Amino acid sequence: MKSIKSRLTLVSMVVLAVFMVLTAIALEQAVVKRALQAEEDGLQLMIYSLLAAVDQDAGGLSLTVSPNRLFEPGLVTRNSGIYALLYDRRKTEIWRSESITVDFPAVGDVDIGKWDFEIVEHQATPYFRLVFAIQWPDINEKLQRYDVVVWRNAVGYFEQLNRFRQTLWAWLIITTILLLLVMYLVTRWSLLPLKKIGLEVKAIEDQQQTGFELDYPDEIAPLTENLNILLSREQYQRQRYRNAMDDLAHSLKTPLAVLTGLGDQAQLEPAQLETLREQTERMNQIVSYQLQKATSVSDIRITRPVDLVTVIDKLLSALEKVYQEKAIAVERRLPPQMLLRMDEGDCLEVVGNLLDNAFKYGSRQISISGWVQDDKTTTLTIEDDGEGLGDSEIRQIMNRGTRLDEATEGQGIGLAVVADIVESYNIELEFAAAKLGGLAVSLRFQAV
Amino acid sequence: MRAIVIEDDIDIQQQIVERLKTEGFAVDAADNGDEGLYLVQEYPADVAIVDLGLPKMSGLEVINRIRDQGIKVPILILTARGRWQDKVEGLDAGADDYLVKPFHHEEMMARIRVLIRRASGWADSRIVCSPVSLDTTTQRTYVDDRELELTAYEYKVLEYLMLHAGEVISKTVLTEHLYDDESDNDSNVIEVFIRRLRQKLDPEESLKPIETLRGRGYRFTLERAEQT
């Protein structure tokens, strides 16, 4: 999962779901426990009120309950849902409330003075049942054991519990959804600066701005400030380097131009003149080659993609002016756009040298074709109808290290520079015999 | 022909000037952009050779200003950097060709000749107004197959008139394009050259190749041959 937003959302969902389920269980447990305790307390009160209504029977050996002293109206209303029974030590029922319409099962032994509260299912109906064992002196002052049992219909309780559960879960789900929504919005809001950084990087890439311009939160601001420093320092260094290279080119080539001019004028022996020309030409080639190589950017960094079609158009309008006399027909089969991530200067250098060679060595016709394959590989082919290059000449150009010394004037130095630049960008360079009869040079690169 | 050389390196500038003069050009030179622009504005030239790296005003700026003012002189740019970005910028700004330093003077001259011919609408190095033909590379002149013996100045006058065949060329323009400094020259010199050229081109006075338009100048009357 690559997106931070997705990760945060997923983690929030899981944590929130677990939290909500545990909360629901805990809440329900607490409520049930409290409700049961309330039920038990209610039944205990009822037993106490029942005991207040207990009297010895006429014989004085057993107990009975005076209905007129019962405070709980449910016990005197038939089928009210509240029922009470009194058992003697032999578990024989000695009294039952007027509300009872069904028989209840006898109870087990309970210690004297202890309470026994249970939920019992009887005849498919749930009941709360509280049993209390007491001792009561008979007429002979002998303590007799009695069990007081109270039953309360629990159907209403369970219905209420179900309603509570439904309400609880409904609210928990609504709360969870709301919380998730809030968390999603908070995540979005928190990640907004990162999105802004992305947009600013794109703007820097497109050369619409030179650094990060927006205000960022305290946590991110140091990063963008440092990146700004890095960018400006890099731009400054790059410009300084280019300027230095330009100055160097000027400084080296001016004396070379003077020497070349002298060679054209000097009253020297033909052999000496030839040597002077050869040596100045060689120096020129070395200087040109190394300077071209040094000024090529050769790494992609934050560069705006270059449209090859625009570069070709620019170069064609320049070259058609320079080679006007040759009246070369240019056949152009290019898609509307061919994007390549490359420094524009390097791109102009590569395509400029290839097109210049085609114009220089072509006789009447040049063909420029480009296409994008399914795997996003883009190919640009420039063909001419000149004499072309032999295999050995192509090998010389492509063979790093030796090509400079053996480079022939014109094609050698230009193609050597092209080969060097494209290699640093991982662009494939191929030479072949052109259908037109001359040289076909192809560049194959990954489209943007 | 008149050429303007704008180059800040004095050694290179001198070499170019010398070579152009050897080839029969009248030459003005400047070592900075400001002065170079002034020369181009003030003196009608047949070609301007402009270095891109100039002090005071860059070569690119000079070219832009020349073109902004509608001056159509052919421009050859000289560049030490040799990057395509610079060449394209120069050509886009209005230059017509470029030369990367160092260069051989033969190559420079060949390009200058091409630019001058192209500016006058000639595609080939051989300019023909039948039966007169002129080879600008070897500087030889023929009437039909007969080669003429011309002096350097006679050749310069004929070349200029033939390059602008059909156009009226004033004596002042001819003088400006042939001499470095007009004050050095007698006002009759051009008339003398024209008379001699008429005698050499048309001894029998059947062609009448050069017409005199009183108070206006001269016109080469023979029609340009179609060039392939």
Topology, pairings included?
The complex is a heterodimer of chains A (448) and B (228).
Chain A: H1 4-52, E1 54-56, E2 63-65, E3 82-87, E4 93-96, E5 115-122, E6 125-137, E7 143-153, H2 155-205, H3 221-265, H4 270-295, E8 306-307, H5 308-322, E9 329-333, E10 339-340, H6 344-361, E11 365-372, E12 377-384, H7 391-398, H8 403-406, H9 411-424, E13 428-433, E14 439-446
Parallel strand pairs in A: 9-11
Antiparallel strand pairs in A: 1-2, 3-4, 3-7, 5-6, 6-7, 8-10, 11-12, 12-14, 13-14
Chain B: E1 2-6, H1 10-22, E2 26-30, H2 33-42, E3 47-51, H3 59-68, E4 75-79, H4 84-93, E5 97-100, H5 105-119, E6 126-129, E7 132-135, E8 140-143, E9 146-148, H6 152-163, E10 168-169, H7 171-178, H8 189-201, E11 210-213, E12 217-220
Parallel strand pairs in B: 1-2, 1-3, 3-4, 4-5
Antiparallel strand pairs in B: 6-7, 7-8, 8-9, 10-12, 11-12
Helix pairs in contact in B: 2-3, 6-8
How would you describe what is shown here?
The complex is a heterodimer of chains A (448) and B (228). With 448 residues, chain A is α+β, with helices and mostly antiparallel strands. Chain A has helices at 4-52, 155-205, 221-265, 270-295, 308-322, 344-361, 391-398, 403-406, 411-424; strands at 54-56, 63-65, 82-87, 93-96, 115-122, 125-137, 143-153, 306-307, 329-333, 339-340, 365-372, 377-384, 428-433, 439-446. Among the domains of chain A are: 4-161, Beta-Lactamase, CATH 3.30.450; 303-446, Heat Shock Protein 90 (2-Layer Sandwich), CATH 3.30.565.10. Chain A is built from nine helices and 14 strands. In chain A, the strands form four sheets. Chain A has a five-stranded antiparallel β-sheet with strand order 4-3-7-6-5. A five-stranded mixed β-sheet of chain A has the order 9-11-12-14-13. In chain A, a hairpin with a 5-residue loop joins strand 3 and strand 4 (93-96). In chain A, helix 3 packs antiparallel against helix 4 (270-295) and helix 6 (344-361) runs antiparallel to helix 9. Residues 400-411 of chain A have low confidence and may be disordered. With 228 residues, chain B is α/β, with parallel strands linked by helices. Chain B has two domains: 2-119, 3-Layer(aba) Sandwich (Rossmann fold), CATH 3.40.50; 126-220, Winged helix-like DNA-binding domain superfamily/Winged helix DNA-binding domain (Arc Repressor Mutant, subunit A, Orthogonal Bundle), CATH 1.10.10.10. In chain B, helix 4 (84-93) links the parallel strand 4 and strand 5. Chain A binds chain B through residues 246, 249-250, 252-254, 256-265, 277, 280, 284, 288, 291-292, 295, 314-315, 317-318, 321-322, 324-325, 327, 344-345, 348-349, 351-353, and chain B through 9, 11-12, 15-16, 18-19, 53, 80-85, 87-88, 91-92, 96-98, 100-106, 114, 118, 123-124.
